[in-house]
Amino acid sequence: MHLTLEFGGGLELLLKDSVKLHHVDVKPKSGEDNVTMRDLLTWVKGNLIKERPEMFIKGDSVRPGVLVLINDCDWELCGNLDAELEEKDVVVFISTLHGG
Amino acid sequence: MHLTLEFGGGLELLLKDSVKLHHVDVKPKSGEDNVTMRDLLTWVKGNLIKERPEMFIKGDSVRPGVLVLINDCDWELCGNLDAELEEKDVVVFISTLHGG
Amino acid sequence: NGFSTNGLSSDMIYRYSRQLLLPDFGVEGQYKLSRSRVLVIGAGGLGSPAAMYLASCGVGCLGIVDGDFVELNNLHRQIIHTESYVGKPKVQSAAAACRAINSSIKVVEHQELLHPSNALKIVNQYDVVVDATDNLPSRYMISDCCVVLKKPLISGAALGLEGQLTVYNHKGSPCYRCLFPTPPPSAACQRCSDSGVLGVVPGVIGCMQALEAVKIAADVGEPLSGRMLLFDALSARVRIVKIRGRSPGCTICGENSSFTKEEFERFDYENFTQSPMSDRTRPKVTL
Amino acid sequence: NGFSTNGLSSDMIYRYSRQLLLPDFGVEGQYKLSRSRVLVIGAGGLGSPAAMYLASCGVGCLGIVDGDFVELNNLHRQIIHTESYVGKPKVQSAAAACRAINSSIKVVEHQELLHPSNALKIVNQYDVVVDATDNLPSRYMISDCCVVLKKPLISGAALGLEGQLTVYNHKGSPCYRCLFPTPPPSAACQRCSDSGVLGVVPGVIGCMQALEAVKIAADVGEPLSGRMLLFDALSARVRIVKIRGRSPGCTICGENSSFTKEEFERFDYENFTQSPMSDRTRPKVTL
Ligand SMILES: [Zn+2]
Ligand SMILES: [Zn+2]
């Protein structure tokens, strides 16, 4: 499944070369048809996060202060960890900013 | 064919109640399969423009100073009048602004 | 200087004529704006353009809260302050700039750090609140305060080369706690003073905060409630995303919330976020 | 005040420390910015924030061109001017504001209407040009001038409750004539003075113009070349669209163009657009 992942608000610093935009191919777990957000988080942690994973993941979800958007919509409105992804979906992980 | 049309930069003043956003259903001409931008301009002129059509159309195209965007892309890059529209396309007509 | 029947004086009609010409704003918008009271919390990078535009376009009463003093290394982004105000209170500097632009509005100086002990009294004097602060505990405190006092909150943030903007607690939109019930780890709480910010990035967000405040005060257009604007300056990209609505289970704004003014005044936001409200440390830049 | 090996003085290191901290900008970005010369054409609604942010963030030389005088009905959006400058030249007022923010940069006053007869001489002194004018003939003239002199052009516009922004003539992007080879009918050429504008709308666009100028001057990020930002303030929506590249057949920037400096100086832009460059009419607002 081809997905576009984007990291912002400083989360990109956890990735190789601080690259924000990633075009990736994520396969469903064996025996399953779909990729859920739960699967994607595991995949991102294993394949993209290069340092300080605790700044991205806490427990089985993202750490507090991170917004997750599926196709420009808050994942709380699409099922959170159980949201099923579709081909060409765009998933954004963004850390909230506090500066001014 | 369901299309979303948007008018801006003052062009909305030519439409009923100055509404910018329109969800419309445009049918191909009889005997044809596709709707082209040429067909859409004719349809817009006949169905949406309420006053001063010369501020929208000149000859068989839009008047000078109007940008046309198909799915956020300049129609000059998609075939101009011959561009073939697809279901759920978003077409924006926007007049260039000069103020400051 | 007499007021005509539409509630605008002849001076106002001349000064704001370009806004009165707008069908979607017009006399009614200007009149509502002239009766509105807007509070800008923070006279820094976001507050500079926000306060200047709110003053220039004609809000009736503009309040500015800040307890800091102008420093030279603020001036690369805080355009409301001039070099001659370095060392002086930011509120005094900002208010002077706003009065110089528009002497016909009321500008109120709150020269103090906003804190649970004074926030209710100050915020209650205004109709619309602009959060232009630079730290996490203040963001939780201001959101909670706006929930308790039922005020719309225009929240902007900028850091590095990115900015964010949304309207909390307005027309069914969430409060800050609905979105972020648990504070992030303090290692994730970077500030402009630690991590830097390109000067004009808070400029863009601060202008947009003023715009949203004007729209709410004048009751025109669709505010950014339930939506969040994400701005990436380096790539020149903007996303406007749909965010959750008010959470029924929110401890502050939810249906069963029992959060009171008294609890607000006692709440320790610095302890809750493990992060300080006032930032007086000076980072060394060694090159 | 000595300069260190990186080309920045200790004063600059302190003043711009928040920008030097940015990995994507840093010392190199600040150094390039400090060596750059940026021209802002028009000290009005767009030029106000653009000039202030360019001054504050540290361009080396900031030029401002305008032949107009400050009027009270400018002040609802032109935040660079204070009431005390009403009746005085806009350039003088704007330059004073920029110097008050940052006395360490060079600010050049061009107190004249930009015209084909003086444009080449003025524009040629700068590296980056910001079009912050308010009329169609000036937009064609400035674009043609930037093509002839090979300067990147950051073009912003605002009217009513909308704004537009793009970068012309830079990295393969089109010139104004590539997009608009034929001028619109003059009935389509509304101005802020005719149709009105909400004060903070040019504020948002002017800030973004400053940002694009900084990015080009410091050579960081992706400029808005070949893309156009469309801003709708009322609905709080932003579109960033892909536009055509440079047109090979363009009469000005195209492959076979023979447009010379001499032709530029003789070109009658007001006749070409059927629209005046200077706007001294005062619309009556009757309520
Ligand atoms: Zn809540
Ligand atoms: Zn061209």
UniProtKB/TrEMBL annotation, chains A, B:
<keyword id="KW-1017">Isopeptide bond</keyword>
<dbReference type="GO" id="GO:0034227">
    <property type="term" value="P:tRNA thio-modification"/>
</dbReference>
<dbReference type="GO" id="GO:0005829">
    <property type="term" value="C:cytosol"/>
</dbReference>
<keyword id="KW-0833">Ubl conjugation pathway</keyword>
<keyword id="KW-0819">tRNA processing</keyword>
<feature type="modified residue" description="1-thioglycine">
    <location>
        <position position="100"/>
    </location>
</feature>
<feature type="cross-link" description="Glycyl lysine isopeptide (Gly-Lys) (interchain with K-? in acceptor proteins)">
    <location>
        <position position="100"/>
    </location>
</feature>
<keyword id="KW-0963">Cytoplasm</keyword>
<comment type="pathway">
    <text>tRNA modification; 5-methoxycarbonylmethyl-2-thiouridine-tRNA biosynthesis.</text>
</comment>
<dbReference type="Pfam" id="PF09138">
    <property type="entry name" value="Urm1"/>
</dbReference>
<dbReference type="GO" id="GO:0002098">
    <property type="term" value="P:tRNA wobble uridine modification"/>
</dbReference>
<dbReference type="InterPro" id="IPR015221">
    <property type="entry name" value="Urm1"/>
</dbReference>
<comment type="similarity">
    <text>Belongs to the URM1 family.</text>
</comment>
<comment type="function">
    <text>Acts as a sulfur carrier required for 2-thiolation of mcm(5)S(2)U at tRNA wobble positions of cytosolic tRNA(Lys), tRNA(Glu) and tRNA(Gln). Serves as sulfur donor in tRNA 2-thiolation reaction by being thiocarboxylated (-COSH) at its C-terminus by MOCS3. The sulfur is then transferred to tRNA to form 2-thiolation of mcm(5)S(2)U. Also acts as a ubiquitin-like protein (UBL) that is covalently conjugated via an isopeptide bond to lysine residues of target proteins.</text>
</comment>
<dbReference type="InterPro" id="IPR012675">
    <property type="entry name" value="Beta-grasp_dom_sf"/>
</dbReference>
<protein>
    <recommendedName>
        <fullName>Ubiquitin-related modifier 1 homolog</fullName>
    </recommendedName>
</protein>
<dbReference type="InterPro" id="IPR016155">
    <property type="entry name" value="Mopterin_synth/thiamin_S_b"/>
</dbReference>
<dbReference type="GO" id="GO:0032447">
    <property type="term" value="P:protein urmylation"/>
</dbReference>
